[in-house]
Each structure stands twice: as C-alpha cells, then as structure tokens.
Amino acid sequence: MATLSFNSTRIKSPSRQSHKPFSKSHFSTKPNNVPFLFPSKTHPQLHHFKPNSISESSVSVPEEAFDDAEEDDPTSELSYLDSETDPSSVTEWELDFCSRPILDIRGKKIWELVVCDSSLSLQYTKYFPNNVINSVTLKDAMETISEDLGVPLPEKVRFFRSQMQTIITKSCKELGIKPVPSKRCLSLLLWLEERYETIYMRHPGFQKGSKPFLALDNPFPMELPENLFGEKWAFVQLPFSAIREEISSLDERFVFGAGLDLDLLGIEVDDNTLIPGLAVASSRAKPLAAWMNGLEVCSVEADTSRGCLILSVGISTRYVYATYKKTPTTTSEAEAWEAAKKASGGLHFLAIQEDLDSDDCVGFWLLLDLPPPPV
C-alpha cells in the first residue's frame, strides 16, 4: 500500500522522513515509493488539512441571484441575448429539457426547455405540452434559438439529466453539435433553483409538494479504470488567492483542468479563506491529467462509511477513486474535510502533480458540490 503523507510546514523538497503518516491509501494498483508533494514555488503556503479551518462567515451566497425576477410573469417565456455579447463567442450551451411541477389546462404536467451559456449572456425558456416531447421538437427549438437571437449553433451542449440523454444526443448530432453529459452545468443548475422560487412557485398551475419528474441519479460507485490510477493522495487546503492564481495560469502553462466563474455564480470568497482539496501524485501525472480532462470532473466525496474517496464525473458516473484504512483518526479527518467543504459553500479542488520535485501541478480542477435542483 502507498502511504498517505502530510506535512504542515512549507514544502520544499521534503525528505520522506519529514512526512507524518496518516493512513494507508491506494488506487487499486501497485504501491509506489514516491511520497506526496504539492507545488511549493507557486503556492508559498500549503496547509495540509486540519479540521475547522474554514469560517462559514468567509463565504457567502446571495439569496437572490436576480433582483428583478419576482416581477416576471410566471407564464411568460424568455428569449434574451446580452447586447454587449459577441454572438460568435457563445460556443457552448447548457440545456435542460424536462417537466415542471406545473399543470396545464388538461391537468398534464408542462415541460420546459431552458437554455443558457455559462455567463448567462444567453437565456432562453419555452414551455411545451407533454405530448410533443421528442428529439424533433428539441432540434427545431435549438434552431429557433439560433435564428431568433442571431447566434450560431453551439459547438457543445452540456446537460445533466441521464434520462434525457437519448433525446438530447439525437437532436444535437443531427445539428452537428457535440452533446456533453455533465453536471458542470453550474449556471444552469443555479438558474433552475432561482426559477423554481421566482417563476414556477408563482405559476397558476404550480403543484406544491410535487417531486422532480426526472430525479438525478446517484448510482453505486464503480471500480476505477486502470488509466485513472494514481499512486499517492492527501487531503490538502489552499488559500483562495492561490487557487485563483492556479486557475488563471491554466491556459498560460497549458495545464489540464477547469475553473469556475465564482463572481457569476454569486459566491464570494475571501482571499485568505482556506479551500479544501484532494492532491494526487503520480509518476505518470500528465497522461493521468489528460484522461481526467475528458471526464467532466464534478466532485470528490469522502465516504466515511466505506473508507474511500468517490470521484463523480459526467452525469451519473461515480468511481471509488481511492481507499484508506478506517481508524478513528482517518474517519475524523475525512469527516472534517467534508465539513470544511460544506462550510466553503461546496467549493473544493482536485490537483494532480508529477513527483517529489515537481513545482507545478499538471492538472487542476476547481469543483463545486451543489445539491440537485428542486425540479
């Protein structure tokens, strides 16, 4: 088994003896003698995880994402493109096509198409009766969005409901669009939450207590594919200022990964706030990061009941990413890491690095663990 290692001081080429053992951890692969390390030059202060390190008061999420939403007519539809946005720059859409907790005059649930881009520069909604839900209807609607708003059809469309994958995929492929099953539709998810409170609940056909028609999947985690194996891992935490620097340098250094527009998402974080994360070391870090980059990484979860870490990717794929020996110490550490993630508004990160002497990570993903939308 590979040893999970910690060091609360600044890391600069530490010796193996300087690490404080935490537990036995593995990725279902042969052990490696390369101890854990995280970038030291670009991040002057790496804090290995300690409980209660994040103050809830340092993170705030505005209660109202749209100030004038309550003035909207709940029965109206929306077709909007920001006048300052270059239409050709909107190359990716986020899409939901699902029933709503609203009944029409026939007593049947109304369906709705909701489309936006990650910056919400593009916003489109349209209601449909339940007897026209098919790929042709969706294909025609996407063409209408393009024509009405004067934007080209997107290169990619992200969607988060596995039950709608067949319809969405067929519609996209007929239009030459790449369908991307992914829960990284964060602008869309937050917009749906806002619409539930300001639009759907005010609709005359709203059905109070109605459960989501297409609930999100949460399947049992599967065995990790061999190409995603790592060798060492550790719970770590970084000041938010360091995370911003890492995200801003992704393109400059051609590093694999993805960031989040927290300003757009309405999440305010102080630069000194420590954000929890998972760091992974591997002698094959670059190919590992490349494989991870194509998976639409959503979140990392510490499952204390099983003594493992769960990696969620795509829509409903969950992997046992790593395991550890369950002891009171390891369980407490995992619980504290999850509590810190909750205190930071769900923010956490995944970092992949090469080896002991590496000064930079080769993969970095900023993640946001959101609850499922109420619809």
UniProtKB/TrEMBL annotation:
Comp. bias (Acidic residues)? 64-75
Instruction: Tell me where in this chain the RNA-binding protein Tab2-like N-terminal domain is found.
Output: 93-195
- Span list, region Disordered: 1-84
For this UniProt entry, the molecular function terms from Gene Ontology, in alphabetical order, are:
RNA binding
Q: Which InterPro entries match?
A: Tab2-like, Tab2-like_C, Tab2-like_N
Low complexity: which segments have biased composition? 53-63
Q: Where is the composition biased (Polar residues)?
A: 1-16
Describe the location of the RNA-binding protein Tab2/Atab2 C-terminal domain by residue ranges. Answer: 213-367
Origin species = Gossypium barbadense
Record-given protein name: PI-PLC Y-box domain-containing protein
